[in-house]
Amino acid sequence: MNLSALYSPLFRKGWRRRLMLALAVIGPGFITANVDNDAGGIYTYSQAGAQFGYSLLWTMIPITVALVVVQEMASRIFPHFPLVYVMVLSQVVNGMVLPFVLIFMLLLTNDRELMGEYVNSRAFNIVAWTTVIVTITLTVAMAATHQV
Known about the structure:
Blueprint: H1 3-7, H2 15-35, H3 39-52, H4 60-77, H5 83-109, H6 112-115, H7 122-145
């Protein structure tokens, strides 16, 4: 296969061709940026929300459009891959791992030697441990009723 013949239309002169080349180069970066919504990102988003309030709410519209485009591109990359099944499976795995992460985080935030004066209050601990117990119960119920 001759790669220069395949890519030669992208390198022709003209603003449309150059724009298409720029989008082809930048596109994977947009996909990668949307994949990286992890705990650190959520912490940053919550801090931005605390600082700016609802003034940045308008950004949800272009973000939603971008996420729809990313999902559509992912379905084109893997045309016969069951993406919905993989997404559901990843949520099941997250549901199974979440209780262990919550217990670990609560044990850390209740350690007075580690947290000092910022240790959890009694009211927060009641709510947090209740949430952990409910999450574990729902996870076990989900795993018990799952049909393959």
